[in-house]
Structure of DNA-binding MarR family transcriptional regulator:
Amino acid sequence: MPHAEPSVPDAFDVGRVSYAIFQLSVAHKGYAASLLRRIGLHPGQELILMHLFSRDDQPQSELLASIGVDASTLSRALRRMQDVGLLVREPAEHDRRVMIVRLTDKGRAMREPIAAMWRDLDEVTQRNLAPQQAEDLTRAAYAVIEAIEHAARTHEPGDEEPR
Amino acid sequence: MPHAEPSVPDAFDVGRVSYAIFQLSVAHKGYAASLLRRIGLHPGQELILMHLFSRDDQPQSELLASIGVDASTLSRALRRMQDVGLLVREPAEHDRRVMIVRLTDKGRAMREPIAAMWRDLDEVTQRNLAPQQAEDLTRAAYAVIEAIEHAARTHEPGDEEPR
DNA sequence: ACGCGATAGTTGGCTAGCCAAGTAATTTGG
DNA sequence: CCAAATTACTTGGCTAGCCAACTATCGCGT
């Protein structure tokens, strides 16, 4: 039965917590993807739309900073979303390098489906957790994120302390 | 500064826990990828190798079941790993459909680098966590995984209760 | 025995995501 | 005032990952 703690090769012992996070990522992302497919979106597109719901007519560069994905990934995702009519891009007046991203009516119409998708996802996510556990999980997640970002920031330039 | 709880559009409120997991996934996977790059592996390949460290000469189908990825994804990953000399595949004697996957010396040599990578990853992951928090996080992760797998199992065939 | 279904893998086609290199426009500096 | 650096974005090239469709082989049942 492929449940909790499946047949884990011994080597995974050294990274039990990371392995759990890894498995959680796969399951969570997979479930989100299946929910997104039902509303006709590809993973990641919902993030772009949600940021646009918060503030429309946004330069592509700001979306980039908010979402944290590679510029090329965003560029291509936006092109595809434009192709299916979710949004429009047009060069800014004041700076012709800048592309302003604007939702179409079709894009705006995704607001409720996306919110419903998050509700469903979070409901399932918390189904086996006590409220306090959910709270702790969230807090621990951000603690880990902070540790990772700090580690990446420090020894990205000068790789690793030379032992 | 993009730390914990960054500028989260209001819409994310409905899925706070899921959004935290999502962000954790991105950060954790990104850091793992950067560590893997240093030892010349692509994400996912380390899992294949680790399962082979546990049991070599394994049919591709068993690897498939252990790892839980799509058959086509595994097929192509194995081909690429064979191309760079990490492993070899040859048809089984008794059943010519089956491909037996075997590590090469070069593949076996990855054992220590991969273990070191997991140690590094888990060290960073736990850096901001008390031991009890790490334990709780692991437990919560598997609880969420179980809920998601159950949800996927139940309403994948008959999509959603019709309201 | 023979055909049909199940099983094992592969290939095609698509998106997400990364890095590296390239283009265009704007800002900075000598 | 014009060249050099910077910024904004795109394109090329690659891997991971999914689904769908296909091939080949094996096993089963009539």
